[in-house]
Amino acid sequence: MSLNRRIEELNRRHSQLDEKINEEQKRPSADVTVLKDLKRQKLRLKEEIGMLRAS
């Protein structure tokens, strides 16, 4: 997989996680544990995207 395709895929997954986070936050009884996990995953993707763009 080319570098650009990898970055595009990671960006797509990052956006999907953002949507999941927003959906969870809209729930009346949002699960804090789930939110933390989703945010952690999103941050990992953001860091990986940044490293790939820097290379």
Structural class, by secondary structure, is: mainly alpha
Tally of strands: 0
Q: Give the averaged pLDDT, no decimals.
A: 96
Strand content: under 5%
List low-confidence stretches: none
Largest sheet: none
Write down the secondary-structure element order.
HH
Helix content: over 70%
Specify the overall morphology: elongated
User: Over the alpha carbons, how many angstroms does the gyration radius reach?
Assistant: 13 Å
Count of alpha/pi helices = 2
Number of domains: 1
* CA distance, first residue to last residue: 15 Å
Characteristic terms for this protein:
elongated, mainly alpha, about 55 residues, about 0% strand, about 85% helix
Could you characterize the architecture of this molecule?
The protein is mostly helical. It has one domain (3-54). It contains two helices and no strands. The protein has helices at 3-26, 32-54. The protein is elongated.
Give the SSE map:
Blueprint: H1 3-26, H2 32-54
Helix pairs in contact: 1-2
